[in-house]
Amino acid sequence: MATQKMLKFVSTPREMPEKRDAATRSEDFREIYQEFAAIKAAEQASRCSQCGVPYCQSHCPLHNNIPDWLRLTAEGRLEEAYRVSQATNTFPEICGRICPQDRLCEGNCVIEQSGHGTVTIGAIEKYITDTAFEEGWVSAAAPAQERAESIGIIGAGPGGLAAADALRRKGFQVTVYDRYDRAGGLLTYGIPGFKLEKDIVLRRNALLADGGVEFVLNCNVGEDISFDAIRGKHDAVLIATGVYKTRDLDMDNANAGGVVRAIDYLTASNKIDFGDEVPDFADGELNAAGKRVVVIGGGDTAMDCVRTAIRQGALSVKCLYRRDRANMPGSQREVQNAEEEGVEFVWLSAPGEFVGHVTGFAAEAQERDVDEVAQIGAVRVQRMRLGAPDVSGRQSPELIEGADYDEPAELVIKALGFEPEDLPKLWGTDGLEVTRWGTVKADFTTHRTSLPGVYAVGDIVRGASLVVWAIRDGREAADAIEDWLTGEARIAAE
């Protein structure tokens, strides 16, 4: 019977949920994909070939049991499908929306390789969990037995929250410290609403709080509370701060007026979406309305910036990337969505300098830590070509001499990636070892750092990476912390 429900990839074509048309969706920050209906979700799930060796599962960082919950969805057993889905994934409703499935599970689907079009795994995962919330199948942590040991988690992003959820379900007392006024990290303030509506994140935050997780927000470790104080207060500590230091451009006037960091731009936009007051948005510095916008970078953050600028009413939006389309790190699905919405991609191009005129005074320049306050009027664009492969195997961009031109712009957004902050210096901590890249040095299996009882997960260990990897790290660290607090490891150390 189960077999009859599956293996329909030959007779049933691949379908994604309907997208709202580009003109309409460009006017707001709501998600662009409609929800699957029950019949359509079951139909698309039935396309799974039920592989003996499911590459979708092996290429998922969480090793989600995808074939099983696809089969259960095809059979209409949605509550069981949700139970299987959430057994390995703390936030399936979030991963279903923002994971780059085209690079992970869907990109490695066997029927995709055979030319039949991949199963729409992400859309079905989203449907399953949204249905579970609607039907009341999702519940807060309710440990069978409370434990006295407490864990302090620094950072309320996906890695920290995944660990918090897992540790509460084990009965531990959990306190999460975060610098922002809302939990979620980049899920809340970095990813725009058209990819992840904020009530989805707030709903999960509320569920964690209902399950007994304590949140200490607006708390800067190293300023409002010391790292040593957190260590003294808790039996174990997990560092899950993420990486927020922006890579910069190697040019003289990289901080000219009108040139902003992607993290500042996206955070301001999301705060406005919440209804918060943002002075730098109100005075126009972080608002693209009526401006010619240039975004520098080719990753997912750049895609978020260009699509946000469209929604803010930019006059034009162009994205400069130094390699070609085939070599860009961002999701091809996101590039397509951006092009539909009116973004122009300028491949094989990089900024040479910012062209403008002086508009400020020496005091203002000193306050902003720049040589002079120049309001840009254009970006001098350098044309590139791809040369020999670099150490990663990708072709290195090379400058084409004499091919520069000026691209008019009133707002430039730097989306060049993120680097770790210097935590030992920031926190005044001795003994916390970091790598030569500045990331915290931690065991890849247990996530232990050089300090006893201190663990680290997510981007602060990996460098800028995916949400799904942070979730995996958080879940693994929760198991390791449990072993430390209850097993022989701590006794031996003491």
Automatic annotation (TrEMBL):
Residues 15-25 have a biased composition (Basic and acidic residues). It comes from the Bacteria. InterPro entries: DPD_II, FAD/NAD-bd_sf, FAD/NAD-binding_dom, GltD-like, Helical_ferredxn. The keyword Oxidoreductase applies. Residues 1-25 are annotated as: Disordered. GO terms for molecular function: 4 iron, 4 sulfur cluster binding; metal ion binding; oxidoreductase activity. Transmembrane segments: none annotated. Residues 26-136 form the Dihydroprymidine dehydrogenase domain. Keywords: 4Fe-4S, Iron, Iron-sulfur, Metal-binding, Oxidoreductase. The keyword Metal-binding applies. This is Dihydropyrimidine dehydrogenase. It comes from Paracoccus zhejiangensis.
